Amino acid sequence: MTQDALLAAVSGGVRLIELGQPFFTGMPTSPNHPGFRMTLIRRHGDMQRADGGSAANEIIVTGGHVGTHIDALSHVSHCGKLHGDVDAAEAQQGGVFKTHGAENLPGLLRRAVLLDVAAVHGVPVLEPGYGVTAEDLEAAAKLAGAEPGPGDVALIRTGWARNFSDPVAYMGKESGVPGADVSAASWLTARGIVATGADTTAYEQIPAGAGHAVLPVHRVLLVESGIFIMEHLNLEAIAESGVREFVFMLAPLRIVGGTGSPIRPLAAVAA
């Protein structure tokens, strides 16, 4: 029998719930980023070893902000400055970031709270272009019976992940996409969270026809507050489970000098 409390908890039975989308060629991608592409470059039988063995492998091409991913603090600047008043132009000299690169993204094993704003409004999916406010997050926390606090992860569900199989609808170029507004970002920063995420491409509110012209919530979270942002989450399974407070697990890739990393986030809940 283990004497370690964490090992004891795991051996008692834990169920993992996926919080991300699968990666596949043709999945929805922001026009600001190169899309995901994967193909086999060697197939079984292309080369067979003397003992009958064969192997297949692939080539993957993707932007760092495609599919379910996390933003590093190098991703966004404001008036030429990254988080901590770091000069963005100087930090990126040489083609990689010397400061705030993706290799510094932390692994996370933290308490998380699901802020189900769609449930607050009694709908499966929020209206296109809807701005999630501080009042919405307050109501979602009350619905969850839990509020995010210092060092926690806050996940905002809009229900938009249900559109992921339809790239045009999901990207919402003409319709807009629901997401957090600046008041919601301020509500989160006041609680001292370490990271936040949502089930859309940009995390924040995208009005109809506006595209990604301005991203003020990224400024508040990444530049001003040093809070990491996760996008393209899929929060449908965790919402359907009824669990609103859980252990959040994440291990980003250590991409030296990068601005983000693909991720596979998981919720650990009692079996």
Automatic annotation (TrEMBL):
Regions that span the bilayer: none
Species assigned in the record: Amycolatopsis thermoflava
GO biological process, one term: L-tryptophan catabolic process to kynurenine
Entry GO MF terms: arylformamidase activity
Protein name: Kynurenine formamidase
InterPro entries membership: KFase/CYL, KFase_sf
Name of one Pfam family that matches: Cyclase
